[in-house]
Amino acid sequence: MASITLSAAELLLHRLQALDVAYIFINSGTDYPPVIEAWAKARATGQKVPELVICPHENAAIGMAHGYYLGTGKVQAVMVHTNVGLANAACGVINLANSNIPVLIFGGRTPISEHSHFGCRNTPIGYGRRCATGRR
């Protein structure tokens, strides 16, 4: 039997599809490239995965998933950016909870350290300086 190797992001998308999730309402940041790459790969190879709906704000993403459930009775997924994305989604999540509306919510995570660990922020973020000074 041949073995199939999938990334965690690919497994997540396939599992959401198996759960009949049609849409992922997403306000992504730097924490979702693996999911976006897995989605692009699935689409390019003809695999059926949930459609990504890019949302300009976390409140919109939560509201769209909420409304989709009210209209269809089907649970959908929401992906939000790290700390501030979860904070922006909080009021919508409270509304979901008060109404007993199920939505699958995924939030990214920032690195747990600033240096000396794989995946940490060992390169300073320079875009603020570039914007302020006009230098690259």
Automatic annotation (TrEMBL):
InterPro entries, sorted: THDP-binding, Thiamin_PyroP_enz_TPP-bd_dom, TPP_enz
Q: Which GO terms describe its biological process?
A: isoleucine biosynthetic process; L-valine biosynthetic process
- In this record, what's one Pfam family? TPP_enzyme_N
Which segments cross the bilayer? none
**GO CC annotations, alphabetized:** acetolactate synthase complex
Q: Which SUPFAM superfamilies match?
A: Thiamin diphosphate-binding fold (THDP-binding)
Q: Name one GO molecular function term.
A: acetolactate synthase activity
Enumerate the Gene3D superfamilies for this protein: 3.40.50.970
Q: For the Thiamine pyrophosphate enzyme N-terminal TPP-binding domain, which residue ranges apply?
A: 8-116
The record's similarity note reads: Belongs to the TPP enzyme family.
Q: What is this protein called?
A: Thiamine pyrophosphate enzyme N-terminal TPP-binding domain-containing protein
